Amino acid sequence: MADVADHLRKKLGTLPHKPGIYLMRDRFGTVIYVGKARDLRKRVSHYFQPSRRMGWDLKLKALTDAIHDFDFHVVRSEPESLLLEGKLIKEFHPRYNISFRDDKQFLLLKVNLEDPIPRFTLTRLKQDDGARYFGPFPNSSALRGTLALVRRQYHLRGCRPLTPGERDYKHCLYAHLKYCTAPCIGNVSRDEYLQQVTAAADFLAGECDEMRTQLAEEMKKASAAQEYERAAELRDLLADLRRTTEKVNRFDRVPYSLPFALDAERDLAELGRLLNLAAPPRRIEGFDISNISSTFKVASLVSFRDGRPDRANYRKFKIKTVEGQDDFASVAEVVRRRYTRLLKEGAAPSPDDPGPAGPPEPRAQTDGEPTGSPTDPAPLAETETKPIRPKPGLPDLILIDGGKGQLGAACGELAKLGLTHLPIIGLAKEFEEIYRPGEKEPLRLPAESGALKLLQRVRDESHRLANTYNAELRLRKISESLLDEFPGIGERRKSALLKEFGSVQRLRLATVEQIAEVPGFGGKAAAELKAFLEARS
């Protein structure tokens, strides 16, 4: 590890031989990879071995080259490390992670004792419905095996109907095999069956020592009798039971006190002091522009509250009034549109509104203004996608991605709106210089400054959102260009189709009758268009 930086080498020496999670960060402090380990020291040390850096895996080499620092958190067991890893990947969306980046949750076990005939079911979402929940369970196969064992041991139903009846009983394999006591036909009373369910719930809550002992004894007897298949089956049941009933922390909220999470309060206080603000900027809004060869000029707005992304208040804009590739004019337009709208909506000067925390990563909304001419890519239907939520107030700090020119354009628009009191800065990427209104020289902060890293996170997130939106529009345009190949369609009929169905993908799923209802199309034209799309699917 001769080429490993001194600070990384020292940190590797502090890693314990315990299970946990680790987070790799780049030079900007951004989390680029989250992993779990049975032995933290062994696992993390592997990344810095010379053989890893010279390996054939280009993705791994790119990751190791980008690592500037790492952090770790010790947990009690492997299942806990799996749960925490999933939570952190969903929170930070590291670029080198693939698993857990969707919104899928770990499995829970649910039973509602108020149901006519209670039953245990698997779910991924905990609701406030009066039911009793167990989990989450990192190992789904172990959970399913344990649930089958519990149903057989306590003679519980496994059928789906909420209130099964005589007809369901006739086709119920569980009842005929005597796995279920069949309360649906009165074999036992509801109170008696409820006692069975309660005993099973207690078992799942951890009162399972007796069954473990029983299974272990049966396994030994089967092995002594040379019934090795039965012994192996009991061994697997014991393993599933151990995995399912092992105590783990739930991590309903990600523990932001972990070493990798910079002290948000400290960073905000430092930023407020460096910028001579009256108080730490609790709410920051960041802007970025994205355009490629003057096409699909878009802008993004990201909102950070208390140092963390407030994704419910992200916004996306199409630039409408700027000709050519002019970043300064584009910044001016988007700043004007954003704060003109907030003023019209009655945004109070105080930004301490109790805005919502928002979902993990909802689709960012457009600013609500018309999205251009009918020939533009299909506009986002704000009335259909924008949820009702409290309107945000004016921010404590505005961050523009760029230098003096971009900052000057934004300041000019704020002056026209009478918002010169709003603090605003520009962050130039090349040397990470902070430009301030009225200051000739930019402010340069040390690379390890928490305030600078906070600004970089805001800037990088706005850059990511703008580029993602630009790519989304380009892909949509490529898809819609297929319609131009259909003979005689014209812009008016094409716009009518996109307005009705939203995209070519949805149009492919439509029937001939549905297409014929679009203005400008009859039965014959609709059938020809349907055949045209099917031939190119």
A few lines on this structure:
With 537 residues, this protein is an alpha+beta fold.
How would you describe the overall organization of this protein?
- This protein is an alpha+beta fold.
- Helices cover 43% and strands 14% of the residues.
- About 9% of the residues have low confidence.
Q: Identify low-pLDDT runs.
A: 253-261, 348-363, 368-390
Gyration radius from CA atoms, angstroms: 30 Å
- DSSP strand count: 15
Give the N-terminus to C-terminus distance in angstroms. 53 Å
Notable features of this structure?
537 residues; alpha+beta; GIY-YIG endonuclease; Nucleotidyltransferase, domain 5; 4 domains; three-stranded antiparallel sheet; 20 helices; extended
